[in-house]
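Hi F.,

I've been meaning to write this up properly since the lab meeting, where we talked about keeping a consistent format for the predictions we share between groups. The idea is simple: the sequence comes first, exactly as it goes in, then the structure tokens exactly as they come out, then a line or two of notes. No screenshots and no reformatting. I'm using this chain as the first example so we have something concrete to point to.
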Amino acid sequence: MAKGNKTDNGVHLMGTDEMLAAYKADTPGELETSYTENVDKMIKIQGKKNKEGKKNHMSMLFDNPLKGYPYNESVELKELEEEIDALILSEALSKKMNIQKYAKKVGFNSDEVQWIMDNEDEDHYENNSAMKNECSALSYPIRTGDYYFAFIGDRMTDTSITKANNKMNDAMRKYFQMGQKKLETFYDDDAEYSKKDMLASYMWNEMSQIFEKLPAGLGADDTMTRECLYTAIKHMTGDGEIVFEHTTMADDIINEGMFKNLAKGIMGRIRNKLRKVKKKIKLGKRAKDLMVK
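Output, unedited:
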């Protein structure tokens, strides 16, 4: 008997249950899986065509950003990661301060206000730090509620400086928690110093070591940056006093390096005014190790 539509059950749409039933009726005794295998094969072929079509369509809509240059996948990936990092960092960070507001905050008189408006080309940000009365403005954006360390970031982008500031805040929280656990072992009622002082001194030593490992371009040894660390620790520990092995005026112990000329001229005065320092802070290189017996 010739093969064909034996049951004369009409034309059916490919891939439907009706088509499958008709196929079974017309081909008794044959493996039913052959049909489904063929269908699966057709689906895979069509799916591959669809993907290629979408790929071609996207290439028409979005040109290769490195067109005209030797193709380098690692460069493309690095640039994409930087863009994603910047996008993530932009969420819930300090908002930009317009130049007029910034100039009025830091200018000493109308001439300086005008000079800043005419010459300042760097971005400045609203203070959204944990210490809102400590700075008039920020030179780079930070996470809301973080401490601001006034990194200089010579030849670095705001994104890189913000990430460094983030890491230092994460370290602050880490050593705050570790210090509290240490107090359970080392503190007793006869201790010479308070819990707050012991915790603050511990955090200073740990954070100082972290600061020393930061890139030189951040200016982590700059006087203002070290004072920011000092005040941040005092604030986090509830006004704990760092007990230094010995103290001197900050300017005498901090090596300003490439930043020593910042204290001269209008830009030096502006930078100093950004921080509302009530009194001269005395710092030490190392605090006493109070958590020993």
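Notes:
Residues 33-61 form the longest helix (29 residues).
Residues 262 and 268 are 5 Å apart (CA to CA).

If this format works for you, I'll send the rest the same way.

G.
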